Amino acid sequence: MLGGLLSTAVLAAVYGRLRETDATFALWALLLGIAGALGSADHGGYDLANAINPPPSIPDLPNPVDPRGLLTFGIVGVALFVVAWLILRGGQFPRGLGYLAYLSAVLLVALYLGRLIILEPTNPVILVPALLNGFLVNPALYIWLGLALLRGRGS
Questions:
Q1: Could you tell me if 42 and 65 are in contact, meaning their C-beta atoms sit under 8 angstroms apart?
Q2: Structural domain boundaries in the chain
């Protein structure tokens, strides 16, 4: 839940840099990213509320706001794909960061599709992208992105 909210600040900072490459696509990536981040926060808040004070019966239905992670994984994956493309097109960030963003985008979309089609969280089609992106690629992406933002242009 907090990760979704905090990522909105990062998205705004990235937009500030990428709008020099292509203002329209940078704005689109920002809007998709904000929608995904807020969907992620809502999804986390929904799960937290049910964990803290479970209702008498929770039907086995997807979250109505973020069904099967559409916003959290699918839309954020598309936003990250656009960000990666803009990073590689422009010179505001290291090129390797763009490739890492592409990898994260592919893993997120694969995770969404796996959650949509397979439903079994222990299936490798869901488990592998979740573990790779959640514990390796996404943290590396955010750390590198943070360092690049702190260092300035062309880092």
A1: yes
A2: 2-151
pLDDT for the residue numbered 155? 46
Backbone φ, ψ for residue 20 (5° rounding) = -70, -25
Q: Report yes or no on whether pTM surpasses 0.85.
A: yes
Q: What is the 3-state secondary structure (H, E, C) of 87-134?
A: HHHCCCCCHHHHHHHHHHHHHHHHHHHHHHHCCCCCCHHHHHHHHHHH
Q: How far is CA 45 from CA 49, 66, 115, 124, 135, in A?
A: 6, 11, 19, 27, 21
41 pLDDT more than 60: yes
The residue count for the chain: 155
Exposure string for 10-48, b = 16+ CB within 10 A, e = fewer: bbeebbebbbebbeebbebbbebbbebbbbbbbbbeeee
By the 8 A CB rule, do 76 and 106 touch?
A: no
Report how far residue 142's alpha carbon sits from residue 117's, in angstroms, rounded to the nearest whole number: 29
For the purposes of burial, counting CB atoms within 10 Å of the CB of 115, is it exposed (0-12), middle (13-18) or buried (19 or more)? buried
CA distance 49 to 53: 6
